[in-house]
Structures are given as structure tokens and as C-alpha cells.
């Protein structure tokens, strides 16, 4: 993500990059009627608003998860407010992001969730009797996989499920060490291709999303579409789609004991109720 990379000397490259992106969009928009559509308030949103102003056309800014993190200091919050107020249309990928956008800009912000890629998902299938708990995502602290491992380690040894986490990242060795110390059967296959992901959802019994922060929560939504019950945290768009006690269970982030209890209580058969919750997120619905 740009906000992680733009630090130290690399920050000096951001301004010329933004100028280059803005001029490129202006040239493109001058060729005919167009709408400047920017994902994230920076860089995409800022570029879209500037290009739209210069060409007297309309702009859309679509907020994602890292937008809140970027705007944590006063200067960037001011800049985010400026970008959002000058956009003609403002959207967030979840209700919580839309609410943040409204609080910053004092303008209306709609909700348009991320679309599902149906090609990478299997059709809903029966839950395997001896499947594993599945996590998916970058192996970084914000995804909360350390909490998930701790939660599985709190379960009774005789009923403790195997855990698979699909993804790569700098926390790999730390997660393996934590699992070894807690007696958790952890499998880390690394990153897999999008088309392979369907197989992982199909083989899983439950999908866990223990994130500390999310903008949307795509993994939870994909799991529901694949017919799997979800244990997730109450962050981002997850509460918008996971019906507590119906298609999954929701717990507060950073609470291993609560997550363990949810893993014990959840009924994998609830996964059959998931596809109806995300039926409007296919590519056809997004146009």
C-alpha cells in the first residue's frame, strides 16, 4: 500500500507521482465526456478531483480500508476533507467507511461494496465432516492471525481443529512459532492463485476472519458466498454481511477468548445461509 511505502526518502517521490497521474488523467478526459473515478482518497481521489476540476467534468471518490489510517494526522485529515468535499459523488466499500467519510467531510457518502469475483469461488457445497478452520490474508499484524492461533490453542485438545492460513507475509515465522508453542496444528501454504482459492473454501469447515482492521472484509464475504459459516471481528464491512447467530458469529477484535468461544459455538451448517446474504455483490450487480 502506498501509505506504507511513502516514508522517509520515498515520500519525496509522491508529489511528482501525483502530478504525473493528474496530467495523464486530464489528457484522457479532454478526449471526450468522462467521469474521473478515484479509488482511495489519495492518490486516486485527489487525482480524480483535480482532473475533473481542470476539465469541468464530474468526479467520484471511492473509499477503502487504508483511507482511515492515512488520515490519522491533522494535515492528512484536512486534505481528505478537501478531496471529499470537492468530489461530486462519494462512496465507501462498507457502512463504517461511509460513516467515517461523512464525519470527515460533512457530506453524504454512499455505500458500494467490492464486487465478488465469481470465477475464483466454488458453488456452495456440503461442509466436510473433518475440514479445517481457514484463514486467508497477508501475514501481517492487522489481520489478527496471532489472535486466531491463540484462540485455537484455547480449545480443548481433543476437539482442537487443524488451522490453515493462506497467504504470505513477514509474520510467517512468528506465527509458526506461536502455533508450535500453543500446540496448534498450523498449515501455511503461502500465497495461492485466485483460481485455487475456491478449493480452499470448499475444503474448509469454518472460515475465520480475526482482523484488527478492515475496510470491507472480502474474505468473509467470499466465505459466505461459498457456503461456509464465518467467525469474524466487528470491523469494516463484516457486520454488514455476517448475520450474528445466523450465518456466523461476530466478536470484538483482539479478544482470543471470545474468538475461541465463537469457534466452539458456531454451527458449520449455518454456511448454507450465507450465499443469500451476498447475492447482490456479483459483477452483474456492479455493472
TrEMBL record:
InterPro entries: Glyco_trans_4-like_N, Glycosyltransferase_grp1. Pfam families: Glyco_trans_1_4, Glyco_trans_4_4. Keywords: Membrane, Transmembrane, Transmembrane helix. The chain crosses the membrane at residues 12-29. The keyword Transmembrane applies. Residues 17-99 form the Glycosyltransferase subfamily 4-like N-terminal domain. One of its GO terms (molecular function) is glycosyltransferase activity. The keyword Transmembrane helix applies. This is Glycosyltransferase subfamily 4-like N-terminal domain-containing protein.
